[in-house]
């Protein structure tokens, strides 16, 4: 388990993209070789023995975390994409964001009842994206093992929101209070 100081590589942008939101910019963490490796390794190590067969990440920032975690776990990666991006038959799920609403889709044949799935993203705010992703996975019949995020905005209570519908573990590296 690493003791990496992730906090120094997250930049706070007040009132972006709208007044009242403190945007957490993770691009300095992604650009830091040690920081990126520590984040991916710490999430992967935590779930290494959980038998994960698929990692699902939501467009766009979930791809940046999800694909390398999947690679380290020896699992496949499934992108949950914004509408109109996937070319074959999809399951769809609408959801509310900290700022606005959106919809995510996965290919119907991207996973199934034999899969054990880890949901990952860079950040969890309201939990809306995570819950929508979990509902997409349920539509495929796959089993959700847990959720993992680099950063959790604890003041928006995303854990409580996820726990209303999903009792699975939520593992995060940085708690923002
Ligand atoms: O917990 P929530 O309130 O749902 O918010 C978290 C989501 O918001 C951000 O993505 P965003 O939808 O802004 O899209 P992006 O990854 O394309 O920037 C972030 O990457 C998470 O996916
Ligand atoms: N405050 C925030 N900072 C960065 N990304 C976000 N996605 C949702 N809320 C966010």
From TrEMBL:
Coiled-coil region(s): none
Enzymatic reactions: AMP + diphosphate = 5-phospho-alpha-D-ribose 1-diphosphate + adenine
GO MF assignments: adenine phosphoribosyltransferase activity
Pathway listed: Purine metabolism; AMP biosynthesis via salvage pathway; AMP from adenine: step 1/1
Gene3D superfamilies with a match to the protein in the record: 3.40.50.2020
Phosphoribosyltransferase domain segment(s): 34-150
A Pfam family hit: Pribosyltran
Classification via CDD domains: PRTases_typeI
Compartments, as annotated in UniProt: Cytoplasm
EC number: 2.4.2.7
Keywords for the protein's UniProt record, in alphabetical order: Cytoplasm, Glycosyltransferase, Purine salvage, Transferase
Function: Catalyzes a salvage reaction resulting in the formation of AMP, that is energically less costly than de novo synthesis.
Assembly and interaction partners: Homodimer.
Family to which the UniProt record says this protein belongs: Belongs to the purine/pyrimidine phosphoribosyltransferase family.
Name used for this protein in its record: Adenine phosphoribosyltransferase
Organism per entry: Olsenella absiana
């Amino acid at each position: 388990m690493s003791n990496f100081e992730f906090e120094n590589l997250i930049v706070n942008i007040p009132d972006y993209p709208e007044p009242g939101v403190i945007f957490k910019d993770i691009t300095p963490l992604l650009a830091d070789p040690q920081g990126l490796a520590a984040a991916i390794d710490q999430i992967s190590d935590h779930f290494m023995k959980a038998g994960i067969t698929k990692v699902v990440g939501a467009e766009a920032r979930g791809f940046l975390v999800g694909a390398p975690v999947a690679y380290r776990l020896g699992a496949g990666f499934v992108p949950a994409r914004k509408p109109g991006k996937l070319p074959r038959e999809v399951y769809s799920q609408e959801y509310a964001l900290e700022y606005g609403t959106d919809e995510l889709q996965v290919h119907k044949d991207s996973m199934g009842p034999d899969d054990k799935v880890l949901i990952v993203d860079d950040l969890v705010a309201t939990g809306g994206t995570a819950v929508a992703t979990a509902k997409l996975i349920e539509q495929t019949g796959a089993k959700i093992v847990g959720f993992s995020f680099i950063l959790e905005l604890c003041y928006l209570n995303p854990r409580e929101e996820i726990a209303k519908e999903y009792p699975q573990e939520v593992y995060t590296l940085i708690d923002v209070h």
